[in-house]
Amino acid sequence: MSIERELQQKMDVEKWLESETRHFDMCGSYDYCAFCDKSEETPCANAYLRMTAQNDAQEAEPEPSYDYPVEGDTEEVLGRHIDPEIIMKKKAARKSLSFAEKYSLQSDIVKERYAALRAALTAVPKGAPRIKGRISRQCDTYRRSGVIVAKITIIGKSLRINLPLDPDAPEFCDGKTPHENTGHKKVYECVPFQFKVNSKLALKRAIRLIELVK
């Protein structure tokens, strides 16, 4: 049995068990699903291997990050003089895109949700420690007094936020707050709770989670 087939069987079992536990089909909800080609014989395994290869490439070739002020406009924050033609060529060649490049491809709705998350994270009472954002190649990271309080990523057309919450806590496992435990990945060790922000309701829930963290 090939490595891909063995991995596919294992992932099928894990996906089925998690779907039973959460009472909804988990197909399409994992990080690797953004790399899926359902026409393949082992779609999940191949998608996972492609995602892993991209993550390894991103870690091997880090891009310098920069700070931005809390008051800055979203377009100015992410305005890096990105060439759309270059982005499309990179996509066609299946090359990884930076966070800013992925952001530039998103719809106005996704950009509005991102702005709402950023506003919720950076709004603090007068005199309280500020929460600052810092964009790197892979994500937008938020810190308060040096401690990471959130990471925002974009996978395909999916906006996601990672928070320092316990993914296994009973209050988050009632089916109303579908999430993933990504703590096994080094980049998410400090913020293992990953939540997709792909609807108005999800945005409201994400803001409540942010307030809980703050």
Strand and helix layout:
Layout: H1 3-22, H2 43-60, E1 66-67, H3 74-78, H4 84-92, H5 99-104, H6 108-122, E2 131-135, E3 140-144, E4 147-155, E5 158-163, E6 180-181, E7 193-196, H7 200-213
Antiparallel strand pairs: 1-2, 2-3, 3-4, 4-5, 5-7, 6-7
Question: In summary, what is this structure?
Answer:
By secondary structure, the chain is of the alpha+beta class. Helix content is 41%, strand content 15%. It has a seven-stranded antiparallel sheet with strand order 1-2-3-4-5-7-6.
Strand order of the largest sheet: 1-2-3-4-5-7-6
**DSSP helical segment count:** 7
Global shape? globular
What's the end-to-end separation, in Å?
Answer: 49 Å
By DSSP, the count of extended strands is: 7
Helix content: 40-55%
Main beta-sheet strand count, sense and barrel state: 7 strands, antiparallel
- N to C succession of SSEs: HHEHHHHEEEEEEH
User: In what range is the share of β-strand residues?
Assistant: 15-25%
| Class computed from helices, strands and strand pairing | alpha+beta
Report low-confidence residues grouped into runs of 5 or more: 59-77
- Write down the domain tally: 2
Radius of gyration: 18 Å
What is the residue-averaged pLDDT? Answer: 82
